């Protein structure tokens, strides 16, 4: 279960007070609070409320497959030249990145940094994109692994 799934279940059960929610959460406090105030939730007068869904939501637009998040991506010239890669907030949720926090992902070509911004996750340069054109599928594993598959859907 992801932090966003857990918070949604708490809200559905009528347990919306922030402080008790933080104390009960099976996740680090910083992660729970970050998810509770961004994405599909907001904090209002000490209670966690749902917000209308947005395209850059904590919840993946495509379902998790075997616990891994798959994200299709069109490779741009900037990405091939070593520019950063913007991916959905759902990646931050899956990897449990604290707000404005940073984690290192492991790839076949070496480490890649991932930073949770206000409305997206920014990956550092992904070496595997240097020689690719068209679309790819980025596969994120909650253990911090990133796999790049050619010909994303």
Automatic annotation (TrEMBL):
User: Species lineage, top-down?
Assistant: Bacteria, Bacillati, Actinomycetota, Actinomycetes, Mycobacteriales
What is the name attached to this protein's record? Uncharacterized protein
Q: Which organism is it from?
A: Corynebacterium doosanense CAU 212 = DSM 45436
